[in-house]
Amino acid sequence: MDGTLLILILGAIVFLGAVGLVIIGLQSPKDEDPLGKRLAEFADSGQIATLEQIELSQPFMQRVVYPVARSLGSLVLKFAPQNAIQNLTVKLERAGNPGNIEPTMFFAFRFFGLGLGLIFFFLSRVAPAGSFMIDKWPLFALFTSLFGFFMPDLLLSSRIQRRQKEIRNAMPDALDLLTICVEAGLGFDASMAKVYEKWENELGRAFGRVIREIQLGKVRREALRDMSDRLGVSEMTSFIAAVIQSEQLGVSMAHVLRIQADQMRVKRRQRAEEEAHKAPIKMLMPMALLIFPSICIILMTPAVILLIKNSAGVR
Fold first, then answer.
1. What domains appear along the chain, each with residue ranges and CATH number?
2. Which residue, of 47, 72, 241, 272, has the greatest Cβ tally within 10 A?
3. pLDDT digits 0-9 by tens, 78-119
């Protein structure tokens, strides 16, 4: 096998491995605590965990990848604009901070993907003439750099959209439960705690964080506003504003919650109708590119075969 071809294959494997590490880092569950789980196992068995056992109990991402990413990210942050760091912090919060990734690690992942493209470009410069697809290596290096640099940001934006959609869809039912709890005599904080206990979704976890912040001494109004900023959902912003206003004016909380629940339910129905109206337009391209050509092939193939046979018979 040509040596340059082997280098290209190894480079592709490294690139795919880097992409896999980024995806695993962004999609790893936030609430999972393998270290705490392992320590609990040692406590149940009565054994004393050594420092080496504690370190080895951590996943490979936390033991090896994250420390290297933090070091590289810290170097990158020294030259990054403060605005970009703040925007990235907001994005990570709105995505639910997947895998507890810090801004330093996220920047490191992006520049690591960019560095892979530079490695391919360097190999294209030093490879001997006549190597396998040597003329395509610079183009492949450019594609690798762009893909590796922008792919983490695209994954993060996609996760933000999925999380916000899940929160929007869960809000009407959550507000119904809040209304029932408040009408039953519970306070608003206790009602949010009930939602957190009953539902294991993004909205329930957001309410749980608010409850913990209030227990630590933060004012409820500030905790609710911080939750609104973290989620970045317009429906949640209007709901929090209505709750704070009702608290200031002394309006019945149950009445406000019922009105908000009705409004959220109407908005959810309108979003479903909007998606249904978009469905024919989204189906147009697959039908034009995939279904119609297949139908034409099925209908015209017998006629073409018959025409070929007749032409051969005439000759």
1. 3-164 (no CATH), 166-269 (1.20.81.30)
2. 72
3. 777 778 778 888 888 888 887 677 787 787 777 777 777 777
